[in-house]
Amino acid sequence: xxxxxxxxxxxxxxxxxxxxxxxxxxxxxxxxxxxxxxxxxxxxxxxxxxxxxxxxxxxxxxxxxxxxxxxxxxxxxxxxxx
Length: 82
Hints:
The chain has 82 residues and is mainly alpha-helical.
């Protein structure tokens, strides 16, 4: 399985388990709903910046995103580090 597909499945599973819409989850992750839709479908390659946003928002590491152990742990967005 390729990395885009693994990420897509992890994000979709987390969102569904939490019972939230794409719009709500996208807002919490700091991405647009169309972007989340493309990420969940595996049709968009993710940038390093977006991966960083996802990890911060979900309070997880890259291994969680790609290893399938990700759980819904969204925390409030905080200002970007400089």
